[in-house]
Amino acid sequence: MKKIPSGIANAMRVLQIEEASEHFLPFAQAVNPDPNFPDNPEASRFQVKPHHRLIAEALEEVERGDNLRLIISMPPQHGKSEQISRLFPAWFIGRNPWRNLIFGTYSQDFATDFGAQVRAIMRHEKYGLIFPQTVLRKDSTAKDYMVTTAGGQLAFIGRGGAGTGKPADLFVIDDPIKDDQEAQSPTLRNQVYQWFTKVAYTRCHSATAIIIVHTRWHEDDLIGRLVDQNHPDHDPEIARDWKYINIPAVVESPELATALGIDLEVQTDPIVVREFGSKPIAALWSDRFSLRHLASAKRLNKTGFVSLYQGCPTPNDGDYFKREWVQYYNREDLPGMADMNIYAASDHAATTKSHSDPSVLGCVGVDKDDNIYILPDLIWEKMETDRTVEEMIALMKRRKPKLWFAESDVIKKSIGPFLRKRMQQERVYTPVLDMPTKQADKMMRARSVQGRLALGTVFFPRFAGWTENAVQEMLRFPNGAHDDFVDFMAWIGIGLDSIRAPGVSGVANVDTPTRGTFGWLKWQTRRSENQRKLRNAGW
User: Which residues pair with 69 in a beta bridge?
Assistant: First the structure.
């Protein structure tokens, strides 16, 4: 790079300082000088790309107070944390040294790391020139808590932390969920939402700006609950308050391409076409993440790719369950009840994480070729225990299933006594097999029906009102917001396996406890009880 005369360089520095105090991207470049060219003020390690400009415009709107609710999702290694969580807090406080900022992420250690980096930026020589009025107090040495001489505060907290006693003027949340393993825990997802609503939000006032940025691991993540239209509990009034910007690694939308200044092109590269098709697309950051590189990432892990790189936690055509596996039947295609064995199963909200989960009760018919027909009078609603029991009794009377499969904990600890009493009163004698399995291992549990779907032996009623919702839930599994229907189908699969496995009577070998333990003794007792029920049912 050609050396710039000192007089011109000095003039450039003055202009740079003025622009950096007014606009975010010049600031990002100014505090990241290129050490290889110390005499050139324009030389910076921060290389501005189209998506950086889009984000910078949104951040400047927040700083001006023009928008108080901003959500951003974007691919890994594309600069989201660099811009939003390291540079923006320093720039915001630089322009507003008397204001209070709280930054939250999934752990205190990670939050402290961000705090250390923000503090380093604020102690940078260029920062002092850009914002001479913003100075950290000499006794402000902590990495997770800083105070300016003007009284402003910066607190960096882990998920669950309450922050300072003062209200926040800006609250930034970056990756409240650490990884996919955490995202698969419904308990943890609910804890994140409760922390946001009951802790983080209580530090806000009517003029507080909130920025949320994170990778979309799951449909039921914080972004999903606030703004995702695909979320079952989507609230348009809440979503209306937020500006949501999703920036995918592979750009397909003409509107987004125009906003970014990127040209979409029809693809001919066979590797790219295999994964993305031949439609016009473009890589968001082509000189760092080419379409070939992104195609390889998708081929390695399709679900991970659409979540991490595209901001869509669930592939449209399914992953664990695939769309092409879904088979349908019309009313006239259903075999007669006398030509099928009828079985029932239920997934009960009583054992789930959230009070908002529905229960699913239904029957299937299995024909002589082992095809499974999900009968149309399935019940999929939020129900109290008494109504749940009455609906079970009604299905038993109407469909006369040979066996009913349900989770052990629900039968023994929740509805069991009431159900048995009502069955005696109504003279209904359907054997109810309580199926033991690990509640957390939903994917393993769903294996029981995954293979049957893949073989094309599971048929959905084309005419039932719930069918499309059920199919969509299965295609989104395991990253969908709800899995009630999947659990119902899993009990059907596990139940059928348990009565048909060679040499096995009672429950299948699903999550069998270690022999000789107390858990094994309980399992044996339950197995004996189910064997008795099977004998009474003629098995």
Answer: 210
Tell me the residue range of the domain where 168 lies. Answer: 49-246
Report yes or no: 315 and 321 within 8 Å, Cβ to Cβ.
no
- Whether 314 is in a domain gets the answer no
Which CATH number belongs to the domain containing residue 467 in this structure? 3.30.420.240
Do residues 34 and 118 share a domain? no
The pLDDT value given to residue 320: 87
Q: Which residues contact 286 (CB under 8 A, 6 or more apart)?
A: none
- By CB atoms closer than 10 A (0-12, 13-18, 19+), residue 234 is middle
88 and 7 in a single domain? The answer is no
Is residue 405 a contact partner of residue 490, using CB atoms and an 8 Å limit? Answer: no
pLDDT in tens, 380-420: 999 888 999 999 999 999 999 999 998 877 777 778 888 98
Same domain, residue pair 118 and 24: no
Q: Judge whether 79 and 284 are in contact, CB under 8 Å.
A: no
242 and 254 assigned to the same domain: no
* Residue 385 sits in the same domain as residue 334: yes
Using CA atoms of 86, 87, 88, 93 in order, give the dihedral in degrees to the nearest 10: 100
* Residue tagged 């939050």 (tokens): 111
CB-based contact 446:413 (threshold 8 Å): no
Q: Are residues 384 and 513 in the same domain?
A: yes
pTM: 0.74
Side-chain half-sphere exposure of 118, counting CA atoms within 13 A: 36
Virtual torsion, Cα 423, 426, 428, 429, nearest 10 deg: 50
Q: CB atoms < 10 A from the CB of 346, how many?
A: 24
Q: Which two tokens stand for residue 407?
A: 């989770």
> Which residue, 32, 48, 64, sits at the end of a domain?
48
Query: Listing from the earlier edge strand, what are the strands of the sheet with 280-283?
Result: 250-251, 280-283, 265-266
Q: What is the pLDDT, as a whole number, of residue 26?
A: 96
Q: Is residue 158 situated within a structural domain?
A: yes
Dig out the tokens for 400 from the structure: 């006369």
